[in-house]
């Protein structure tokens, strides 16, 4: 039986013994995402299996799968015994078949853009006055990273956490179309608003001389839960020779799908996540930084069937300060 974690959790709620008694294996994919349904499901499974073992009843094998999972964390949680007698669950590492992916951080990419055409880059960045403040904040964040690591300064409040520098993304896409001969470009954005903003920017401004409104040369695909499935299906179609595919997506393209002709990944390092506000006692969708696990997953999209490049629209210092995995 194949189903979502939410549906399986609901079934476990109504007939936990019936499911555990009839199943030989339970496979949970992408466990590293730490979604609430996954975490609650693991709690239910662990407690139910413990009760059945005490009763002498059969229990299924539980298999967690992920390319970027924290093995020790989950192995300890699903282990047997407690305290010093804890025996972690066994782990298996299967070598991946992905191709090498070169990582490029914001400083290096901006240097390449400026070396290519400084006037063009400045023209594009001038379309949004907030980009200058964002660049200055990123530079200051990088400069003070060593002091923060040594505990000499406190972590500054990130006033630009929810900001997405659309002009910089447009400049990177235009530059890639100028310096690279082939391969689809996959851009990770937090949500639909940023997706539509970037698409509008690409068609309005000829980034590095490229007319992205010309459907004969460029094909822009959008991936979002609200986009009709027939429109999203276009992302899997191989394009004719001379037509460059540009994919603007949320984290739906992080693990759920694989586009084989992606060779370049441009990552804002942002996603929209539900966060609980203790003061207002409400849950809100907020634009926040991804975890290092997310970043590695996104980078891997460029190396599925060929060598690729990952362009991080953030500094290397910011990457090292990201959380290792998502908060549940």
Automatic annotation (TrEMBL):
Domain Helicase C-terminal residue range list: 171-328
**Entry annotated with the keyword Hydrolase:** yes
Q: Name one Pfam family in it.
A: Helicase_C
* Entry keyword set: Hydrolase
Q: Which GO molecular function entries does the Swiss-Prot or TrEMBL record give?
A: helicase activity; hydrolase activity; RNA binding
Q: Which PANTHER family match?
A: ATP-DEPENDENT RNA HELICASE, ATP-DEPENDENT RNA HELICASE A
What this protein is called in its record is: Helicase C-terminal domain-containing protein
Origin species: Cryoendolithus antarcticus
What does the record give as the organism's lineage? Eukaryota, Fungi, Dikarya, Ascomycota, Pezizomycotina
């Amino acid at each position: 039986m194949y189903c979502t974690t939410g549906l399986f959790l609901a079934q476990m709620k109504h007939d936990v013994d019936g499911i555990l008694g009839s199943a030989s294996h339970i496979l949970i994919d992408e466990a590293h995402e730490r979604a609430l349904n996954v975490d609650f499901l693991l709690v239910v499974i662990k407690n139910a299996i413990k009760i059945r073992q005490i009763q002498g009843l059969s229990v299924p094998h539980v298999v967690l799968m992920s390319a970027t999972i924290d093995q020790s964390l989950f192995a300890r949680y699903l282990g047997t015994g407690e305290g010093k007698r804890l025996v972690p669950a066994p782990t298996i590492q299967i070598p991946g078949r992905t191709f090498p992916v070169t990582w490029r951080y914001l400083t290096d990419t901006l240097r390449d853009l400026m070396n290519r055409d400084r006037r063009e880059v400045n023209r594009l960045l001038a379309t949004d006055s907030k980009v200058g403040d964002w660049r200055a904040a990123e530079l200051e964040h990088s400069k003070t990273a060593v002091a923060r690591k040594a505990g000499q300064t406190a972590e500054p409040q990130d006033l630009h956490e929810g900001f997405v520098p659309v002009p910089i993304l447009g400049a990177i896409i235009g530059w890639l179309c100028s310096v690279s001969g082939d391969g689809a470009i996959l851009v990770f954005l937090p949500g639909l608003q940023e997706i539509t903003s970037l698409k509008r920017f690409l068609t309005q401004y000829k980034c590095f001389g490229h007319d992205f409104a010309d459907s004969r040369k460029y094909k822009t695909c959008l991936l979002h839960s609200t986009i009709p499935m027939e429109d999203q299906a276009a992302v899997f179609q191989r394009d004719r020779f001379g037509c460059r595919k540009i994919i603007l997506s949320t984290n739906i393209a992080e693990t759920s799908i694989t586009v084989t002709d992606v060779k370049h990944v441009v990552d804002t390092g942002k996603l929209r996540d539900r966060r609980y506000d203790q003061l207002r006692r409400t849950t809100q969708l907020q634009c926040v930084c991804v975890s290092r696990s997310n970043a590695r997953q996104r980078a891997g999209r460029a190396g599925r069937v060929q060598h690729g490049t990952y362009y991080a629209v953030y500094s290397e210092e910011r990457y090292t300060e990201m959380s290792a995995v998502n908060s549940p």
